[in-house]
Amino acid sequence: xxxxVVTPAxxxxxxSTGHSAAALLGATAYDWHCVNYxxxxxxxxxxxxxxxxxxxxxxxxxxDRFVSFYxxxxxxxxx
Length: 79
What we know:
Elements: E1 5-6, H1 10-16, E2 21-24, E3 32-36, E4 43-46, H2 49-57, E5 63-66, E6 75-78
Antiparallel strand pairs: 1-6, 2-3, 3-4, 5-6
Helix pairs in contact: 1-2
């Protein structure tokens, strides 16, 4: 059996957990955050990529990994 590679739905995960959106606050793989916008300032929260992968794939049998630490868009969910 070969594993499937799926791009994690970080923005969808953030909005599904009650946040306003996903925000990329840098250029590395660990710079993703969920954000809540308010009238004063945005509030940022850490993102759990294992939880994002479970949300994206719909099961708990996933592995999260990134191809390059210096590429924030290189996250992968492997099923």
